[in-house]
Write a sequence for this structure.
């Protein structure tokens, strides 16, 4: 429990806020006092997540379902407002500790107490499922301990607040170590998934440890899907039923009805193990000592939901949901504008004078060689556009230097979007700066096209004006996976996961383990931050693995691993992605295959014309990311041509209207799924390290053909 921040509202609806119970990407959970004086846990969802009309419908529907729950072991919904700018939901407050805290403090539970816990949770899940809900996040942290029994919290709400990107098939929600194999794979889940999670909870409470171990998320998910749980120390009386709960196939698990029959009725006399009643009482006493809630946001009148201060910037995400109505009803604008502008002559004039102009803002760090490459690619695209006979407008490039920092990028893009002539911002920045630019572009209503960045912070950008012109890391490494599957065809691949950058590298590991994108057997070797690679390299060499995939984001770490492999005598195929590229890695990694999001326009047949234009203009071959920036500006020009007079307002909608093919990738909007993505045809490319340099091999879709 933490104090309110000065930026927190004093009240939401009729509920006065007293403290913060927790916060996350979706919103904040407050301790609040109701008009009648009772304490509640009030979850306020960030306003930007509610801009999707579909979200509000889901939130409203599932809140109504949750309100039907009235069992002994549920936490009742006491109020909710799905129509507020920041939707919120209030439930009764349970002051006790979580099961996770209780086990960590006092150790495993005896069998009699586990039976009471199992009886209560099975009864709760039966009621939840009968109401049409699947909890999907049954874990020790979501089970609160009260004097009279446990309370399962957050059921149904995760489904409502997860927004489309977190609830559709193909994504993973829940807590690794407690979610089912089908949930870990991003598949549709039903009541058996909650049964699996309950088995994990009971085993944890019985043994004091998670059944699929600790460590990196990818490793835990892999063990959940492919390995048996660690049930050593599980009491014999519970062994059979827990093992059935943890069956890999949903149909092999017991129903909640069977679980109720096994555990019987809840026995309050054998509810809390020794030591816990005093802890529960102490937590309840803390609430009694709280003062009357005081105001935070300065306001002469009581603060209502409408008076809340804006929340933080939206969490950037790659899969972009179309705003309601934004993609519809604008076709006639493009047609009418084409009729007015379509008769310009080769001199760049119309019958009434010079052509209109559209300004393309290019944002980046002028000291970064990758920015120079992108600037050159952008200028070639603009020159080609302006040389076309019959064009509707001229393009002008305006550069803004953000200095390579998030703060600098925000200031620079602010200058761009303040100019009404700027119709689009092409972001040539990297993972450190691109996410910071999402909010200011969205607030200004300016389309933001990201060329190079692939951070997970840009995964599923939700209800913003940002479009990603390349897949993020969550798409996995198609080029190196295709190389392994189509060319090497390994019987066993060692996936070495460098935990120095777990968040950045987890999607790659997950794609080749949990989602089984690699054929053949896969083994995961995790290397903690600061640890060397010699031991892992020796194990790989001793086993004689057929291939090695390095999942790491730092060139120095990749270089150290490549050196360790060589010392260990391993000579098999090795692959990694573009984030490993650096001078030290290139000197150590002769023969390694590297997957990238950029092409070599001089070697890729699709880029020959562009490469010639680049050489003619600048006297050199195009550097990495030049062709991708060229494509991005051409994509923007394509949309601006259709957007007509209201270029800034309608550009994003026009860009989403139909697929577009460039020389480096194809981009497309999926109206049914509600996401925009850069596809891997070609999109991803394969290089080989030869004589200390990366040499282009092929586009991903050409590998093995």
């Amino acid at each position: 429990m933490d104090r309110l921040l000065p930026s927190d509202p004093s009240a939401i609806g009729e509920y006065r806020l007293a403290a913060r119970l927790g916060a996350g990407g979706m919103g904040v959970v407050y301790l609040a006092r109701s008009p009648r004086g009772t304490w509640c846990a009030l979850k306020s969802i960030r306003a930007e997540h509610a801009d999707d009309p579909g979200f509000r419908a889901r939130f409203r529907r599932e809140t109504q379902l949750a309100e039907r729950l009235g069992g002994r072991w549920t936490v009742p919904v006491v109020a909710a407002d799905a129509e507020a700018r920041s939707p919120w939901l209030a439930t009764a407050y349970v002051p006790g500790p979580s099961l996770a805290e209780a086990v960590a403090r006092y150790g495993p539970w005896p069998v009699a107490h586990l039976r009471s816990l199992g009886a209560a949770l099975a009864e709760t899940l039966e009621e939840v499922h009968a109401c049409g809900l699947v909890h999907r996040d049954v874990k020790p942290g979501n089970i609160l301990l009260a004097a009279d029994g446990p309370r399962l919290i957050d059921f149904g709400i995760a489904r409502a607040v997860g927004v489309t990107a977190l609830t559709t098939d193909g994504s993973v929600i829940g807590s690794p170590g407690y979610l089912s194999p089908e949930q870990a794979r991003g598949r549709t889940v039903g009541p058996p998934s909650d049964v699996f999670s309950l088995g994990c909870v009971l085993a944890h409470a019985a043994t004091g440890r998670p059944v699929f171990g600790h460590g990196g998320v990818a490793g835990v998910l892999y063990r959940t899907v492919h390995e048996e749980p660690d049930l050593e120390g599980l009491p014999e009386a519970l062994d059979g039923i827990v093992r059935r709960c943890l069956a890999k196939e949903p149909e092999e698990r017991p129903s909640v009805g069977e679980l109720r029959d096994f555990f019987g009725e809840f026995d309050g006399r054998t509810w809390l193990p020794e030591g816990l009643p005093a802890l529960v009482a102490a937590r309840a006493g803390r609430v009694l000592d709280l003062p009357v809630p005081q105001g935070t946001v300065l306001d002469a009148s009581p603060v209502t939901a409408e008076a809340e201060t804006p929340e933080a910037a939206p969490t950037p995400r790659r899969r972009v949901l179309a705003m309601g109505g934004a993609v519809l009803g604008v076709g006639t604008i493009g047609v009418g504008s084409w009729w007015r502008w379509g008769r310009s002559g080769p001199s760049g004039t119309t019958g009434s004078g010079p052509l209109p102009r559209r300004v393309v803002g290019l944002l980046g760090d002028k000291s970064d060689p990758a920015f120079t490459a992108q600037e050159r690619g952008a200028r070639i695209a603009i020159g080609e556009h302006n040389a076309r006979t019959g064009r509707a407008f001229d393009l002008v490039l305006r550069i803004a230097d953000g200095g390579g920092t998030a703060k600098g990028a925000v200031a620079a893009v602010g200058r761009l979007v303040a100019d009404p002539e700027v119709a689009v911002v092409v972001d040539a920045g990297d993972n450190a700066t691109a996410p910071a630019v999402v909010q200011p572009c969205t607030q200004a209503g300016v389309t933001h096209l990201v060329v190079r960045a692939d951070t997970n912070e840009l995964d599923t950008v939700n209800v913003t004006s940002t479009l990603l012109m390349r897949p993020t890391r969550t798409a996995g490494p198609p080029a190196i996976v295709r190389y392994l599957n189509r060319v090497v065809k390994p019987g066993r691949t060692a996936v070495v996961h460098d935990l120095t950058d777990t968040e950045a590298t987890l999607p790659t590991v997950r794609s080749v383990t949990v989602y089984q994108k690699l054929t053949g057997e896969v083994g995961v070797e995790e290397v903690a931050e600061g640890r060397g690679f010699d031991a892992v390299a020796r194990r790989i060499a001793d086993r004689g693995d057929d291939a090695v995939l390095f999942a790491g984001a730092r060139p120095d770490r990749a270089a150290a691993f490549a050196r360790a492999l060589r010392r260990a005598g391993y000579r098999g195929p090795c692959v990694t992605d573009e984030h490993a590229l650096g001078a030290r890695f290139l000197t150590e990694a002769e023969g390694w295959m590297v997957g990238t999001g950029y092409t070599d326009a001089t070697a890729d047949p699709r880029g020959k014309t562009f490469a010639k234009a680049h050489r003619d203009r600048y006297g050199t071959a195009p550097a990495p990311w030049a062709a991708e920036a060229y494509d991005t500006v051409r994509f923007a020009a394509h949309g601006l041509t259709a957007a007509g007079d209201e270029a800034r307002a309608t550009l994003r909608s026009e860009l989403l209207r139909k697929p577009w093919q460039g020389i480096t990738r194809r981009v497309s909007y999926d109206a049914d799924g509600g996401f925009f993505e850069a596809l891997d045809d070609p999109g991803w490319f394969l290089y080989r390290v030869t004589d200390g340099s990366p040499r282009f091999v092929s586009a991903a879709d050409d590998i093995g053909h």
Notes: Residues 156-171, 293-347 have pLDDT under 50 and may be disordered.
